Amino acid sequence: xxxxxxxxxxxxxxxxxxxxxxxxxxxxxxxxxxxxxxxxxxxxxxxxxxxxxxxxxxxxxxxxxxxxxxxxxxxxxxxxxxxxxxxxxxxxxxxxxxxxxxxxxxxxxxxxxxxxxxxxxxxxxxxxxxxxxxxxxxxxxxxxxxxxxxxxxxxxxxxxxxxxxxxxxxxxxxxxxxxxxxxxxxxxxxxxxxxxxxxxxxxxxxxxxxxxxxxxxxxxxxxxxxxxxxxxxxxxxxxxxxxxxxxxxxxxxxxxxxxxxxxxxxxxxxxxxxxxxxxxxxxxxxxxxxxxxxxxxxxxxxxxxxxxxxxxxxxxxxxxxxxxxxxxxxxxxxxxxxxxxxxxxxxxxxxxxxxxxxxxxxxxxxxxxxxxxxxxxxxxxxxxxxxxxxxxxxxxxxxxxxxxxxxxxxxxxxxxxxxxxxxxxxxxxxxxxxxxxxxxxxxxxxxxxxxxxxxxxxxxxxxxxxxxxxxxxxxxxxxxxxxxxxxxxxxxxxxxxxxxxxxxxxxxxxxxxxxxxxxxxxxxxxxxxxxxxxxxxxxxxxxxxxxxxxxxxxxxxxxxxxxxxxxxxxxxxxxxxxxxxxxxxxxxxxxxxxxxxxxxxxx
Length: 603
Ligand SMILES: [Zn+2]
What we know:
By secondary structure, this protein is an alpha+beta fold. It has a domain at 465-598. Strands 15, 16, 17, 22, 23, 24, 25 and 26 form an 8-stranded antiparallel β-sheet that branches. The chain has a 7-stranded antiparallel β-sheet with strand order 2-7-8-9-14-11-12. Helix 7 (131-147) crosses helix 10 and helix 11 (214-220) packs parallel to helix 14 (274-291). The termini are far apart. The structure holds zinc ion (ZN). The site of zinc ion has 6 residues, from helix 14 and helix 16.
């Protein structure tokens, strides 16, 4: 295993389309949630009356790196206001959550695990010297309460135990005290062992359970990677075993899983929760850093370049609770929801459709992805994801100019005060790799960079192809992008107040009503790629940065009974009912209404 270390927002700064995407996020809901949403604005974490559990730490976990990546002073001041309130409210015994002493035994300490992780994120960004001791005291208190049986892990804390290890590893590295290892063992022993639930993942679930809960499924994949060292256990790549089973029975074209909100099978009209998308990305970032295995970054790219942008509105003010791979409408379903345990608005866009967890938690997706662009080990630096960014590390500056994944041209400008090794991770789908105009073997590039200025130009090709999916359907893929038939839509906006929470433009609810046909199949496998400019909105449905023209015919697909706005899982017939037409497919992430898994028309 070749372990890599993360950089922080002190070293990595976004550029190009990535900076525009993060700026959209800062100007959208993430950057304004504390002004408009009572559970953040008036949270018990800062002395208010509203939710004092997961929502503030969830939001800060993304808002903090977003603020520091963009060096946005106003946002950084807000970060400090929240952190100061949390730090100053810490009890003398170390307890850190907004819950009085007598209620601690019934307080789900998932919030303790989460706030310690978030404080570590804050420390990485800010270097605030108070933080190691704050985390130390919080975990020491957690240790004493758990060891003495004053509290136990239950509910979310039991199913998300491994989330404590980001902060546990940090304080073990800093203080090296034995109780930290003891705490690690107690947490694991009280935590849930997902290996015992595998059989439950093999068919769609209809009952809400923690051991088939989609967000837990995506979070737990990193559990062995983040915990085994402190526990003194061997690494076995258990994540791969668990992922394979989840993928076989619940996999989606974007390499996530269906879960609306428990595991939902291999039907492209079932939903995937937004929390699951960002948590799966975070798991894969940790898995790559831990193992150095490219497979985790390639899966990370599929989620980050497809599932994440698709489920957020272009202005990032609204989101869906669940997205569907074949999503012909985002309208309230009239009878019952087509989902297991989510309601009929779960796939509409809004401030908090169905439930408010994603409203706070989605903020971590883009910032942490940006922070995964470069990693390091000793005097070696790796460009792990080809995102446009600048790295400044100890006298070495590497600037990567690129529109990847929208095209496959990379230009590196390096200015170094010393020699170092530079690795460029080349995706497995890359063909005809050229480095500075010379044909090169298609594998990771390892370069010994000399002190001074160096430029590297790199280019490869990715061929569009139809990837086989279950149910005799196919998804068009090119590199790390999926392509979909985009369905034009009309937005129906709704402003209202419910339970004291205001929905008002631009954070109102939207339903998307389809206006163009969606019932297609592929006539052949001839594809024409068009590269456009990457616009102000990188994942725009009006101006997609890259499109693929395909020959397609309409078929009698049909609706899923008894719904009027959900298509069937598979088409009724694959006999063509139209002539061959040239259809322009858009990146999945640009198509808020779309058909992605489609059949090949019978000749
Ligand atoms: Zn959620």
